[in-house]
Amino acid sequence: MDLFDKDGVRLTVDDTIATVTLTNPAKRNAQSPALWRALTEAGRSLPGTVRVVVLRGEGKSFSAGLDRQAFTPEGFEGEPSFLDLARGSDELLDATIAEYQEAFTWWRRNDIISIAAVQGHAIGAGFQLALACDLRVVADDVQFAMRETSLGLVPDLGGTQPLTALVGYARALEICATGRFVHAEEAERIGLANLAVPGTELDSAVRDLTAALLAAPREAVIETKALLRGASGRGYDEQRTAERAAQARRLRDLAGLAD
What we know:
The chain has 10 helices and 10 strands. The protein is α/β, with parallel strands linked by helices. Strands 1-2-3-4-5-7-10 form a 7-stranded mixed beta sheet, sandwiched between helices. It is globular.
């Protein structure tokens, strides 16, 4: 069932599985504020039945990043140009970037698991969108790159925290500061990708992973995800306490179902 299809984003839901597709292959799924708002709406539109969200891009590339039209004086029709935003107040600039970031924040909600199926280019904002997801399955032609620093900017769409968590500070700094490409073999080796497969096998690999994720009871997956997401911010003893609390909830729930 298609819930909506607009501004370069299509949301389709089939019971427990939602698919968010970037639908502008002619521009290699370049991103814009309108697309970001559509991604935010997709997150808000998910039915409660959804457990797994698959993010993919039509065509040869996942997403080539921000549409360069953003940096022209005219910008996008009906939108303030980035140059106009730069001339505005600090408060307006901060609020605008925060609105853009919302498109990248909902993918790690505890009640869903998100999978980015990535082929071809995933550059800049495209890289950060793939990083927004919990898991990444990549085709063997994938090319990740964080080009913002090379353009005199910084990655500001939520990608720096997951990148550092996945590959460590030193590797994250090197990837961002050089703007170099990370290909499939390296992506899998350093933890950017959970799995790298031939391009012809990308869809089937994502289906297999989705099926495996759906095999466990939903509440147990939700509690486990919450534990893992919070682990980096807790000490060892704090994490053990969190584990005990989560397990107590699960045992009580299971006991209630047994009655």
